[in-house]
């Protein structure tokens, strides 16, 4: 699983940061979380292809999070897309998508399947699920939790050998969930496999003040991508406009016991975001400030 930060700025783009867009690659599938202005261009200067995006999840309807949809959809159309595109977002997503599909007498060559979702609703995408949770912003907004299904337990080589299973194809069959027969005895996978292990979990905050709901949703996640619009000297302004500081994000990450905190939605007042990274690391050392086109590989982290 790879995260590519196509846009990491908050509110307005800057010479070095586009606005919110996060691509998640899972095998051949790609999801997009938020789609700020110019997202299709960000795709073009990245190693990714926007044609591989299957589903888009919008957190809320401030322009820096969704106004890239018309350009992205029309670029997909000009490039000959035929595959259905699924778009999810808060109440109003269906109506907004219908409007986009008629701009400039535009007639898309593919189906755009939009759906309004609310906090607590889960979307099953096969390889993973995406669950919407409530965000505390100035307009109705959502955060999202991406989770893989549980992984198979570890193969216990020592136990297999005790049972007389020879190394080779029979090991592979047991790991694939198939029983094998050795010297007339059937050996089931349950005898040589450890307990199932959790799949990977990534949480994307969108725009929000820190909340207990987000802490609970992010608990034990491999990665928390959290907005950090401002530093804590400007916390009053951050909270007034429904945002978090870098310190707020770090406190959420620490309370949720996540693996890595990645800060995004950086105000364009910061030419250098080192102050935000330093502030967060005082509380949660494993913090990174995202920059445009940064790629982060989400590795499996053992969790209880």
Could you characterize the architecture of this molecule?
This protein is α/β, with parallel strands linked by helices and 304 residues long. The protein folds into two domains: 2-151 and 197-297, 4-Layer Sandwich (Metallo-beta-lactamase, Chain A), CATH 3.60.15.10; 157-191, no CATH class. The protein contains ten helices and 18 strands. Helix 4 (93-100) links the parallel strand 6 and strand 7 (112-116). The longest helix has 11 residues, at 246-256. It is globular, with a radius of gyration of 22 Å.
Summarize the model shown.
The protein has helices spanning 39-44, 63-66, 69-78, 93-100, 157-162, 169-175, 212-218, 235-240, 246-256, 274-281, and strands at residues 2-7, 9-10, 21-26, 29-33, 53-57, 85-89, 112-116, 122-124, 129-134, 142-147, 180-182, 185-187, 201-204, 223-227, 260-264, 266-267, 287-289, 294-297.
Task: Give the SSE layout.
Layout lengths: L1 E6 L1 E2 L10 E6 L2 E5 L5 H6 L8 E5 L5 H4 L2 H10 L6 E5 L3 H8 L11 E5 L5 E3 L4 E6 L7 E6 L9 H6 L6 H7 L4 E3 L2 E3 L13 E4 L7 H7 L4 E5 L7 H6 L5 H11 L3 E5 L1 E2 L6 H8 L5 E3 L4 E4 L7
Helix pairs in contact: 7-9, 9-10
